[in-house]
Design goal:
Radius of gyration: 14 Å
Order of helices and strands: EHEEHE
Structural class: alpha+beta
CATH architecture: 2-Layer Sandwich
Number of domains: 1
CATH superfamily: ACT domain
CATH topology: Alpha-Beta Plaits
Strand order of the largest sheet: 2-3-1-4
Strand content: 35-45%
Distance between the termini: 29 Å
Length: 87
Amino acid sequence: MSKFTVELFANNWAGVLDRATGLYEKEALNIDSIDVAPTVEPEVSKITIVGTGKDKAEKMAEKMRQMAFVKACNVIANEAVRVGAVG
């Protein structure tokens, strides 16, 4: 399975995180990590979700863009990271 990252900017409303993660549940995808952070606009939050699923990144981003609370949504390319000694 391949990992993908979806970054979205959404209204800072109650239930937004639940609705966003619910889309992953409907598609039977795992969420590997999730991060929510404030932005310079107090009414908007940045949500970053790393998921696992084959060729699902663009599909998830498109579904997110259709939700009323989403201001913007992007897919971030994941690259393999090697952990260990350098040299």
